[in-house]
Design goal:
This protein is of the alpha/beta class and 458 residues long. It has 15 helices and 17 strands. The chain is 36% helix and 20% strand. The radius of gyration is 22 Å and the shape is globular. The chain starts with a helix and ends in a 7-residue tail after the last helix. The mean pLDDT is 92.
Amino acid sequence: MKHSAAILIAKTILRLNRLTGSGGTAMPGLVAKKLYPDILKALAEINFPDGVIVVTGTNGKTTTSKMISDILTKAGISHIHNRAGSNLERGIIATILEHADSKGRCKARMGLFEVDEAYVPSVSSQLQPRYIVITNLFRDQLDRYGELDKTATRLGDALLKLNTKAILNADDPLVASLGLNLKDDKRVVYFGISDYKGNKTEHDYALDSVFDPNTGDMLKYSQRYFGHLGIYSAPNSSFKRPKPSVDLVSMLKNDQEGSKFEVENEKTKLNLQLPLGGTYNIYNALAAVALAITMGLEPKAVELALAESSAAFGRMETIEYDERKLLLLLIKNPTGFNQIIQTYLKSDLQKPLWLIINDKLADGRDVSWLWDSALEDIKDYAGAIVVSGTRAYDMALRLKYAGIDKNVSIEPELEDGLRAVINKVQVGETVHVLPTYTAMLALREKLVKDTKGKEFWQ
């Protein structure tokens, strides 16, 4: 009875949210769980006969999930996906109920869920996923997650308790080390880059995890692509980068317009094109490809899906506003910020730039990560810069210490910042907009409202 009541009330809230124009990505699930604490487990038990996929990690969860969803669609596999990015338990419950009938049953054969890395143990114990994809682990929101080792331990413990196949990033030592404890090698699939071509960030000091898990000694790198990702080995133990079974063996193009590359495994070879720029998106694509190959999907479906892929909301998404183009590039930690600097800002030091830094709960209260970002790489930036958000003055101070103090305007309020940046650019010009998470949501909501565009859940 409680089960039925929880579903009915949650679905009613979902309908009301849509009627009032609200995304409603969390509240229905929160209410349903309050009324019936085991509802996620109950929904998982009666749905998804072809299994559940969980995607987690620090950066790239939303984009990787979208790529996987595109591949599943191209392969003709019905599935549901928390595409709005609400990745806590409440958001996943709401996603399932949105697609379910009054008894909680969905027609989809698979569930695809992006899950916050801190919530993987509790969510996975209920969903019992057939596959878990871990993109990477970087320092992020230290006030909320704590140090990386703590997050890795939680993920490792969760994997040990599940009968799941782990899709792991071989080039991230901490992620790769999670496979060491899974005694059955068949439970692990590694993906990685063996042929890197592309820019590197000169002041990339975000080395978050460079230690041998066996001895604690610092790893040695023969190549380092960004952050702590690359080809590494331990000086005093057998720990080293595992050989990727899904391996980027030839990188033909890698710039802000997109990439072309060849991926091999023992059974197949794929020629891939990706219309999304940046090495970080190549890693997102590799994670999706590794999963698809593991599932036995047709290579043609993978190639077509990635060639037609588009950005997830707020991640390389362009919104036209007042005859200008605003390119939204979400930032939330030093490694992600450095990738944006490497891919976009270093190549065009004249383009207008708008930085919006908030320190709300979902952003992380601690903004010390700004000081670990490679802003010295763009110390010669000559374009107009506007800084906004609750920590606008922290951002401006960081720019000053990086040697960037010309053409900088401080407008803490979002409305004022938008007006300032629009006034500084010409019609048809593109502005690079780098917001933190809550700033991105607030800005996007305003832009969509003013331009009558589509909300992210539509």
